[in-house]
Amino acid sequence: MDLFNPETDPTTNLLPKDGTVNYYGKLFDRASSDHYCDVLLNTIEWKNDEAVIFGKLIITKRKVAWYGDVGFEYTYSNTTKKALPWTADLLELKAIIEEKTGETFNSCLLNLYHSGEEGMAWHSDAEKDLKKNGAIASVSFGAERKFAFKHKESKETVSLVLEHGSVLVMKDTTQTHWLHRLPPTKTIFKPRVNLTFRTIVDYQP
Ligand SMILES: O=C(O)CCC(=O)C(=O)O
Ligand SMILES: [Fe+2]
């Protein structure tokens, strides 16, 4: 099953089984989406992402930043990151997303893709620091990009386009049974900022 036209009724589950993905469409109008895109590009402490793969340190072109309630450390791709304290803009966005989705979050991972050449490979967000089956809200600003899910056993795929100012929620057993990715493309030259609001558990303040 492939969905190229985003289904913007957030009560529709885009996955056929083993998880829940809801697409809320553009929750922000054009002007506020442009505003947040600009503010995030310019005020977030963007860093090159580092990952350890087969014992080798890999540095990606994509930039990342990690914000949250004070004291959070988060391990992924075999490296540990410490959360920066929330900025006023991120807290504002978090409040809007929590209100619209009915979920709560204590941290946010941000990704900056400078152009379509940068993407993110197949993975699931099921690190031990993350609340099991907790909701992850993905907010996108900037260039529209395709986003895809693949079932770990059946290999079924589902995909959609994440629009400027849109929100996607992944929850229930989605991370256990499905991988997701942001495929690279040679036809997009504008940047995209993505925020994934998450819930971290078992932290040492
Ligand atoms: O950029 C995106 O839309 C997804 C990012 C993602 O999957 C992640 O940060 O774990
Ligand atoms: Fe992810």
From TrEMBL:
The UniProt record lists the keyword Glycoprotein: no
GO MF assignments: catalytic activity, acting on DNA; demethylase activity; dioxygenase activity; hydrolase activity; metal ion binding; oxidoreductase activity, acting on paired donors, with incorporation or reduction of molecular oxygen
Keywords: Dioxygenase, DNA damage, DNA repair, Iron, Magnesium, Metal-binding, Oxidoreductase
GO terms (BP aspect): DNA alkylation repair
Keyword flag Magnesium: yes
Domain Fe2OG dioxygenase: 104-201
Named cofactor requirement(s): Fe(2+)
Protein name from the UniProt record: Alpha-ketoglutarate-dependent dioxygenase AlkB
Organism: Flavobacterium flavipigmentatum
